[in-house]
Each structure stands twice: as C-alpha cells, then as structure tokens.
Amino acid sequence: SVHARALSSTSPPSVSVDLSNVSSHVVRADAPGGVPGEEGLLRKLVTQIRVRGPMTIKEFMTAALTHPKHGYYMRDEEVFGRGGDFVTSPEVSHVFGELVGVWCVACWEGLGKPARLRLIEAGPGRGTLMADVLRSTAVFPSFQEALSIEMIEVSERLRAEQRRTLSEVEVGAELQVRWHAGLESIEAEDDVPELLVAHEFLDALPVHQLVRTA
Fold first, then answer.
1. Type and span of the H or E element at 182
2. Given phi > 0 = left and psi -120 to 50 = alpha, else beta, which region is 212?
3. Among 1, 93, 120, 193, who pairs with 150 as Cys (CB 3.0-4.6 Å)?
4. Can you tell me the distance from the alpha carbon of 196 to that of 180, in angstroms, rounded to the nearest whole number?
5. What pLDDT does residue 27 have?
6. Phi-psi bin for 113: left (phi > 0), alpha (psi -120 to 50), beta?
7. Which H or E element spans position 121?
8. What is the pLDDT of residues 82-93, one digit of tens each?
9. Cβ atoms of residues 137 and 167 within 8 Å
C-alpha cells in the first residue's frame, strides 16, 4: 500500500495492456488439478503474474487470505467454530478465555492499576475469546473501568459477528470497543499501557520467504 500511494502521486502516462489472450492460460476450476470454487481468485493471480511478473510468497498469501472478494477470511462462509473449518481453543472451552482475562488483570495490577489500559486483540475470530475475557473480569469493576478495547479485524462479516458476541456479555462498566484494519491505525499514548492478545494469529500472517545463496 505504501508503494501504491507513492506511485499514485507521480501521474504516470496511461498504459494500455492487451489481456485478450490471458484467459486462455488460466487453469479452469473444473479441470484436473483445478481448485473448486476458486476460479475467480485463480484468474486474478494468473493475470497479475503474466502482466507484472512473479509475485512473492507474501503477496500470494495476502491475496489468498484477505482479497476483498475471494480471500479466505473475507468470504461469507463460516470459518471458525464447529460449523467452520477449524475450532480454536476459545471455542472449545470458556476456561481458556477466562484464564487470559485473569492474566490481563494480573498485568494491570503489576502495572500499578493505571486509570487507563488499552486491551488489543488481533484476529478476534468470532469474538469468543474477548467475550470470555470480559465476562471473567466483570468481578473487577475498576479494571474494566480502565479498559478501552481495540479489535484488529479486516473482515466486515467477522466484525459484525464480533459485535453480536460482545453485545451479549454483561460487564461491570461501560466499555469502549473500536475496530481497526491494522495495528498501525491504533495511536499509542505515552501514559496508556497496552496489552496485546493475538491467539493463533501470527501463524496466519503472510510471510516473506528468504532463500540463502552463495
């Protein structure tokens, strides 16, 4: 996105690209070795590679996971929970999120019980973990009064599900909850400590593949 912003300000000359022959090289979803249901993304990736050249592993993973229409986490289908593709720890038992909540309170107390505390969750899924954190810490009203909650989520569908989940939780104080597309949009404040929870999140991020040569 940084490169896109930099290039957009240079007003390059218009370029016409003939893509009429590109579609003939695209693997069909119903062909041997094709990917059922993914022809749309496959077509876009093949077109990009033929026009711009090879893409990095990170670019490929980013498109596969978060493409606005075809990305795995952006689809309308259920991803998490018993009706989805996999079940994470918070979906198995409330105890997991409750223990994370106790850890948050312990950290807050170790910081001297500051009047303000920012709790950030990256990749909140269906909101189950945060709901359990809030439910288990409701017995510490002064802790919840200090909280502001920031949720990092790129999927609008999952954001809506997280809102529904959190709206059903009875808490000890009125809480502020804000959603962000990335960590960079959360402005740090010198006098506000932050706790960051990222359960089963880092392993799903796009990565750079490095090759060691001579």
1. none
2. beta
3. 120
4. 14
5. 38
6. left
7. strand 117-122
8. 777 777 888 888
9. no
